[in-house]
Amino acid sequence: MSITTMLSGRAAQTPAAPATDIALDLRGVQKTYDTPGRPEVEAIRHLDFQIRRGELVCVVGPSGAGKTTLLRSIAGLLDVTAGEVVLDGKAVTGPPEGMAVVFQEYGRSLFPWMTVRQNIELPLKEKGIPKAERQEKIDRALKEVSLTEAAEQHPWQLSGGMQQRVAIARAIAFEPSVLLMDEPFAAVDAQTRAELEDLVRSLWKHLGVTVLFVTHDIDEAVYLGERVIVLSNRPTVLMEDVKVDLPAERDQLTTRSDRRFGELRGHVYELIQRAKRGDRPDAPQPEGAGF
Amino acid sequence: MSSSPATLAPPASGGTRPRTRSRRARRSRDVWLGILGVLIVLVGAEILSRTGIVNPAFLPPVTEMYASLFQMLGEGWFWENLWLTVRGWAIGLAAAMALGIVVGFIIGSVPFLRAFTNSTIEFLRPIPSVALIPLVVLLFGTKPASAFLLVLYAAFWPVLVQVLYGVADVDPVARDTARSYQFGPLRIARSVIYPTALPYIMTAFRLAAAVALILEITAELVIGVPGLGKQIGIAQSSANVPETYALVIVVGLIGVAVNLMARFVERKALWWHSSVRGEHS
Amino acid sequence: MTTLLKRAFMLLGLPIILVAAWWFASAGSTSPFWPPLSTILEAFPTTWTMDRIVGDVFPSLARLGIGFALAVLVGIVAGTAIGLSPTLRALAEPVLEFFRAVPPPVLVPIIALFAGYTGWLGKIVTIALGCLWPILLNTVEGVRGLEPVLGDTAKSYQLSRWRRLLFVVLPGASPRIFTGARQALSIGVILMVISELFGANRGLGAAIVQFQRSFAIPQMWTGIILLGLIGVLLAAIFKVVENRMLAWYVGQRQIERGV
Q1: Which of A278, B212, C138, C196 is at 20 to 30 A from C213, Cα to Cα?
Q2: Which stretches are transmembrane (chain C) (predicted)?
Q3: What CATH number is attached to the domain comprising C84?
């Protein structure tokens, strides 16, 4: 049995050289919340990892592992307390250029007063793309997610799965260098979810976009990812960076019944169970540290 | 399985201060800012008046308004009129609440009545209460009954509409649950409909309390029903400008007190009602 | 009964009953205050002649329209600014709390000091000031209550300030703005009437009070009915505009409730 585990390649990192094939680089990220009347809550203690251009990486962790905190920090919606998030060689201080986020709350991340087309168009307008080109990009994005016929409808007229596809279309039309997805399928039913997973795989493959996919679902993480980053419980550190050596061509039926899939799944499951018990990769932490 | 732990550095020690300010600090900052805002308005008005930028005959210095206000506080007529206004408001509001709740529950719980009265309610509701002023003047002159009718009419509609929303809002699952446990109609009313409608009744109280005060003051000011509103008219027509302003300030403060009380009551009654409801009005 | 007949019965049944009750109860009435409905209806066309409509009703409605429009404009601009800035909000909150609570009719004597009450200015200012607070405060709440995920989305796509304001913040606040505008409109109608009751004036409200003072009771009743009809008409127009502009909101709410 051999799972090749990647250590984050700190050695290869020289501060001056702009990242060539590194799309996203987390360097010693730490986040502490200061809530009133209570001691500080340390959400993320220390995270270091990199995502190469064109990779599809999943992040899983036990519930309350600070996944959303991490994602919001990467998206520039939250300031990190220490360390830095580097996108395309530039440190993230606010929402960075070249990043698109697909939120879990599909119903609430689409502008209900706009049609599907207008929702996708708004960020493109902001980019200053001329009208004809905008329409072309919108049509292409809608075709990618097979929603061409829903273009003139309002988001709330669509089913949950379709709404999330609109959010995905908006993100890919934006052509980000990194696409962040925050538990995007947590609120849709199982069948829709399988469809959307395959959609993400196929978009990733033929658009070559870099994807960071946060989820709490172990199966989903293994099925989708080229790597699975497993987080510990709070305060979050990296449990393990698991390489998923499944064939690139994946299929809900065959891949999920693959022996290797089962092994990887079991391994990640094991890690999450350990994380839940409070096992940490450094030394066993005294229970309740930081709380 | 071979797996090695990822790199881990010790947590960064000290040096970086948390950026989010504590809520308590923010709240006390807000209180100070609020006080500052009030001071800006008061001092600004004082300066405008004292420098003559605004004719002091129209806008006397704030200090004079308050001098007049404190002088009033020592005089019997002020307290008498304050009492008349508050009494008129309270009686009208209470009657509107009682009537609105009873009618609302009856109409709301009978689907036929709800459908049958809908168009009439939608038609009567937007009729401005001031349209009734000439009529009540004919009927009651400057007696408090004039104000009472106007207040009752104006405050009744928001109560009725809220109660109707409340009764309609009863969760069908809760009602079915109650039925499947064979609750009688009275018990359903008490244990299912009433708790659902209660928050709406509290909202009705808040809306009606404000409307009732507006109409009470209007009746006093326009018709001459005894009360603070009438005194405002008298002060203005006798060209006692500081006193006019002082009375307006008092009426405004009554309004603030009414709003605060209504919101307090609403929150007290809603502590268990965690979901956020949209306001229908 | 077919469904159409049933619908018509539900819609018109009670109003017809009420009007009929009024008709028969007042028929042959000799009370000076309660003239027969037939007398009132006969008086209607002779009272509200073209001359009166142009000279009294239109000016009243025009003043209402101007005052209301001013309040909408100022209320949305100021409300958005206050809603977006926590500092401004903290600064303005107690002051707004006071002005909101002042019953609008007491503005009349104060504004009379400044602008007098014979011209249009004082009346328009009264209406505008009375309408302002509900619109302003609801705009503040609407802007503050914007769905946080939408705010995050706008931020993560780096929408510029203006675009965020026009395409995200204002549409998001629009249901609350309409709530405020609806409250403001009914206050506006009240103030339209009250502002005409001071001094010698022309206008719908002034005319009705003159009828009452000169004991022209059937005419007074026609005025009350006309005022009521105008209130109903304004509410209906408002609803049409609201349903058009908030079509997305109405549709969304229907679906949310239907599921």
Answers
A1: B212
A2: 64-85, 106-136, 180-199, 220-241
A3: 1.10.3720.10
- CA distance linking residue A214 with residue A225, whole number of Å: 10
Candidates C149, C167, C172; nearest CB to A122: C167
Q: Do C94 and B115 touch (CB under 8 A)?
A: no
Question: Who among C93, C113, C194 is closest to B218 (CB)?
Answer: C194
Indicate whether B68 belongs to any domain: no
Q: Are residues B235 and B172 in the same domain?
A: yes
d(CA B13, CA C127): 61
CATH of the domain at A155: 3.40.50.300
Complex-level ipTM: 0.84
In tens, the pLDDT along B182-231 reads 777 777 777 777 788 888 888 889 889 989 999 999 999 988 899 999 99
Domain count, chain B: 2
CATH code, domain carrying B155: 1.10.3720.10
> pTM of the predicted model, to two decimals?
0.81
B31 and B91 together in one domain: no
Residue A99's pLDDT is what? 86
Any chain B CB within 8 A of the CB of A282? yes
A31 in a structural domain: no
